[in-house]
Design a protein that fits this description.
The complex is a heterodimer of chains A (108) and B (279).
Chain A: E1 5-8, E2 22-23, E3 29-31, H1 39-47, E4 52-55, H2 61-82, H3 90-103
Antiparallel strand pairs in A: 1-4, 2-3
Helix pairs in contact in A: 2-3
Chain B: H1 6-13, H2 21-31, H3 37-46, H4 48-58, H5 72-79, H6 81-96, H7 107-128, H8 132-141, H9 144-152, H10 154-167, H11 171-178, H12 183-193, H13 198-206, H14 218-231, H15 247-253, H16 257-274
Classes of the chains: A alpha+beta (108), B mainly alpha (279).
Amino acid sequence: MSEARDLALAEVEPGMVLAEAVVDGAGQVLLPAATALTDSHLTSLRRRGIATLRITPPADPLAEAAALAGERDRMRARVMYLFRNTADNPASQALLHAVLAFREGKPG
Amino acid sequence: MSQPTLDDTIRHIHRLPAMPAVALELLDTLSRGDPDVDAMARHIAQDQAIAARVLRVANSPFYGLQARIGSIRDAIVVLGFSAVRSLVLAAAVVRALPAVSHAGFVPERFWRHVLGTAVAAQALARALGRPPEKLFLTGLLHDIGILVMVSAYPEHFARVVALATERDCHLEDVETEVFSFDHASVGAALARHWNFPEDIVDALAGHHQPERAGSGGMAAVIHYADAIAIALDLDGRDNNQVPKLDLDAVNALGLDWTTLIEVLAETQARFDSYLPMLR
């Protein structure tokens, strides 16, 4: 994932997410990190004279899906290896399927 | 290399440290009702090595407590006597059995595996509506025979590991070629030497052959818990492998799919919380 970037307040759009907390001159936290910004946040920050915000980069769904698939493949390969000598054993095979479902977060 | 007999190995058991007195007292309270909780709290607190391990786990994020638990008394008030009793017994076992690295034997992996089995047995017990503590303890002890073998005959044990690696099989499949017995039988002998209850001794003896120990019994739960700990990769040993499960023993437990997934989730979460026990 790419780095967080600093944006002038005028360039910030509602829906963007803060990479770090916004702090006023006295050190008071105005908005915590990870806040998804709204119109009223932006108006209020403008009124308080905040000039720039550090914003998290937009997510890249394709890259994230590819990374997840890599992780999922590695997980599956390891589980299959652990069960490598149980192909003829129905009770062990049932456990194998439960472990895969659990690892993939499927309730059933 | 001559083949050590079970008698030779049992003579070695007599040189192993005794179980701490406080663990034996607690063990006794497993079968008797109404323990004197105040007296037990004082006894546990006197064994500082055990008390420290218990407090490390009680303060792990798993329990999600706001305030730090500073004493065994507080731990009992907050977590309950039976949770603390399990933790004390676990700490006593870890401390009583000095595990030294030898060729083919990594103590940390050993302890991670038995702790994983103990936690899985506890999760299975809850799902099956059985008392969890005794199964937790039995899971923790299920492979102690391996510790006896490796400490009495490290070279023979290294040969067992080498054979199992070469043939890609389980230790118990080759143990009797090198020793004249397997880790289940010597583990049962050690548990008997420590005056553990007879049902624990039987479950240790039968955890690889639960059909011989009677279906639905503690041996069957440990048999399954052992496989769950390996299936979840809790000890992380590279060439580990899940055993072939005894279908009748597993079916007799009668777990449905949803419950099994819950058991896996609980095992994973609790295992992480118990790890501070090993440090």
